[in-house]
């Protein structure tokens, strides 16, 4: 509040301007407070914000004629002088509230000259300020014991509530406390404080300000020896806002204090189950307003062993697989896929980048839905190669997610965490799944809610809905199918991620009303072996979900998203193809009636094209060429699966079952074809055990027949060897290897074979 000054003896306004700074939640409750430069706790509050009960108690006990005198009440001065003379000691000072404000702003000695100075300053105040302004100066600067000044700071310190919500008894207590702030401090001298409070209540009863029944009830409230610590509910968040708004004394945030407290307690308990030096972070956003409702930047603030001063909501980390939903959504919008397009989870033999799946092994034919729900790496890398790496990174950047990429050279590893981002950035992007594909900038301050949203588009409403529908089908971690009904009201779309080397565990969840982000890891970047998104961040995500008031309202499906029956291996509509070509039927979500056919990877040869036409001899049903001199030969079409999927197909779906053998009468007229690639010497589903006295680990000889060119060998999805034609090699399993071992070989033409053994 600005104070008008006198040109000769200006009124000091320094003390009137020095306030502690406070960050409050959406209900104006402090999240964290910061003392002023002198360590004084003084929170600004207006006259209108203070409880009327306090004003009544203060005026009627301290200065009944405050609204009528001109700063000095001569009757009070005469009464105080008489009492002091007759009693031989100071009984009453006779100071009005205006005089007390003058003494606060300009301290003076307790001499006659000091008293005269006080009177002059009081008259100066009354000349330049209105009564409400003087009263507000008192409310904000009166001493309440120790480093506490002002009624708002006192109310929070001694009563843990705002001065807006005082009871009759509490109002009387705070009204008398400045008279002797040391003797009456409730946290040190609760009995003296209660006795002084009752004096105020008796005075108010005498003046009939409050009914006697109210006075009697107020006296029943005990004054307890308590002092509430300065809140530290959102320390990193509060410091962030403080730095961003250095001139604001009260920063009104969008945080829900109750939720913040619940999640603070939750994460404090959860982190005790994790290894040393680990931390965690939680961010909750209201999708309807883009307001941040909970912000836990660290699991243990100020604990240096857990790097408690580092805000892991803003920290740049590898996002693992959390970007995959955006790629699949963009590919849907581009017409490259539908929800059940056939993808191949097989070795990328001729590619420069050969990632493995997190769980190890290959899965063969998978749908888009399955690949995304299971977070398979190879289908995502294949799709990114088709969509375009630079294009994908640019789309994210345009939507507000700028990835931190080494040397600013995006590559296929981006989709598996090869670029850095923050929990804040991920949560902001995931909220698009609930906002028709639009990304709204997160909002942290109350006044921002009245402003138009800052919006960018990431996905169409249709692809955003399809992606969240797919992610909604992922089971809650640790859940049992029979218990699914228990979680029906808590159903969310969610995705996990794990960065390379188990350094970061992520889980992001979305429903119609909230987007929740969780990060778990070590802020110093060291690994946490055995901890990954599904096992560590996922359970924490659902503990947060259980703390939210979620309902069963689903995100509305756009009209241009329809369910269609499609067939594998062609991937097209069931109604648009011959029934004999439909070897597997699936129901897919399609956008704008666009049904793209199955796409075949660039490293596959022409034999992988969907429809294959051949000529056959009707007598023996064997295959011939069109040039073969066979009377009555006929043409036939079959739908072929991608060649790389052969080992995972049932027998009647493989090429050997669909394409007849060559007719010997015209075998020379047919183009030569490589013999079928096959692993020999290892029986499928055989069991191997340690052998010898010392229990040496088992070994296998890797050998093939057929195929063409160099052979690549994969064991549990990791490439181990390459062999030439007629060349063999030996693989010795490690001491710790056990369970199923998937062994795959692939030649240069994409021919593939697989066996699985058990150790």
Which short descriptors sum up this protein?
Beta-lactam/transpept-like; PBP_1c; alpha+beta; Immunoglobulin-like; 17% strand; carboxypeptidase; 759 residues; four-stranded antiparallel beta sheet; peptidoglycan glycosyltransferase; transferase; 20 helices; Penicillin binding protein transpeptidase fold
Describe this structure in words.
- With 759 residues, this protein is an alpha+beta fold.
- Among the domains are: 15-220, Penicillin binding protein transpeptidase fold (Orthogonal Bundle), CATH 1.10.3810.10; 600-673, no CATH class; 678-758, Outer membrane usher protein (Immunoglobulin-like), CATH 2.60.40.
- The chain contains 20 helices and 24 strands.
- Strand 4 (279-286) and strand 5 (291-296) form a beta hairpin.
- Helix 13 (324-333) packs across helix 15.
- The chain is elongated, with a radius of gyration of 38 Å.
- Residues 1-5, 481-487, 603-607 and 669-674 have low confidence and may be disordered.
- In the N-terminal section; belongs to the glycosyltransferase 51 family.
- It is an enzyme of class 2 (transferase).
- GO terms for molecular function: carboxypeptidase activity; penicillin binding; peptidoglycan glycosyltransferase activity.
